[in-house]
């Protein structure tokens, strides 16, 4: 018997597929602000994963860096891995809270292309919604929040490539995100997943992406900007 890299890859894939975060079925802040309503609909509906071709390595590296950062930020100033709840909607775990500046911080570990895009154009609306949801969850507990931030770390570069995006805490962003989630649930309940529009949100990484899919309650063929959605985007 000869050991091959495929044997090692299989162990890695299986471990990633079975870690608690990968098995999570409840929608959380990282999902709720997504740019594709149909993907959110599949998450709410608990549609089984059909996309098994996604390479998990970027997620594995990101998770490993997150775990290391949790051990780095110690002391009275920092609170890490804080569970927060948005009553009636979801719970989640924020990465970091700075008690000196009252700032909620979310870590993002990205490759060079997406890191440059974030530096040049700022965070995606999904990331902005996510960190504001975490901040609102903390605010609900009575903890003072003044700012939100996203700490960008390079997956393939150096520490000097990291940078910080900050903004004031804005409960309105979280409220609008939750109202949008309510609308998605309403369309899902009354008309089904097929009536939810798609969005350009890295389709190839979606658990329900299948290029030739026709049964939209089971899978999605992806976003096609040349074909208008049946509904306006929630």
Describe what you observe in this structure.
With 234 residues, this protein is α+β, with helices and mostly antiparallel strands. Helices cover 40% and strands 17% of the residues. It contains eight helices and five strands, in the order αααααβββααββα. The longest helix has 21 residues, at 171-191. The N and C termini lie far apart (55 Å). The mean pLDDT is 92.
| Approximate helicity band | 25-40%
Low-confidence sequence ranges: none
What percent of residues are in strands?
15-25%
Strand order of the largest sheet: 1-2-3-4-5
Whole-number average pLDDT? 92
Number of helical segments with 4 or more residues: 8
Shape: globular
Oligomer: single chain
Structural class: alpha+beta
Radius of gyration: 19 Å
Spatial gap, N to C terminus: 55 Å
How would you summarize what this structure contains?
By secondary structure, the protein is of the alpha+beta class. Helices cover 40% and strands 17% of the residues.
Top keywords for this entry?
17% strand, globular, 5 strands, alpha+beta, 40% helix, 234 residues, 8 helices, five-stranded mixed β-sheet
């Amino acid at each position: 018997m000869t050991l091959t890299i495929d044997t090692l890859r299989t162990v890695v894939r299986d471990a990633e597929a079975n870690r608690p975060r990968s098995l999570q079925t409840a929608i959380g802040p990282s999902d709720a602000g997504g740019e594709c309503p149909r993907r959110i609909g599949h998450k709410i509906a608990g549609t089984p994963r059909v996309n098994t071709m996604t390479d998990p390595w970027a997620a594995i590296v990101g998770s490993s860096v997150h775990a290391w950062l949790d051990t780095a930020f110690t002391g009275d100033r920092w609170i890490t891995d804080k569970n927060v709840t948005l009553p009636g909607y979801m719970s989640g775990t924020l990465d970091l809270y700075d008690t000196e500046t009252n700032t909620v911080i979310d870590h993002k570990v990205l490759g060079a292309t997406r890191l440059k895009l974030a530096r040049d154009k700022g965070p995606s609306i999904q990331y902005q919604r996510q960190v504001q949801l975490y901040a609102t969850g903390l605010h609900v507990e009575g903890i003072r929040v003044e700012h939100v931030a996203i700490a960008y770390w390079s997956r393939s570069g150096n520490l000097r490539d990291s940078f910080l995006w900050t903004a004031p805490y804005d409960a309105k962003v979280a409220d609008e995100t939750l109202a949008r989630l309510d609308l998605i649930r309403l369309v899902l309940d009354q008309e089904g997943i097929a009536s939810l529009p798609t969005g350009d949100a890295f389709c190839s990484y979606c658990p329900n992406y299948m290029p030739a899919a026709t049964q939209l309650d089971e899978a999605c063929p992806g976003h096609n900007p040349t074909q208008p959605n049946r509904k306006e985007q929630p």
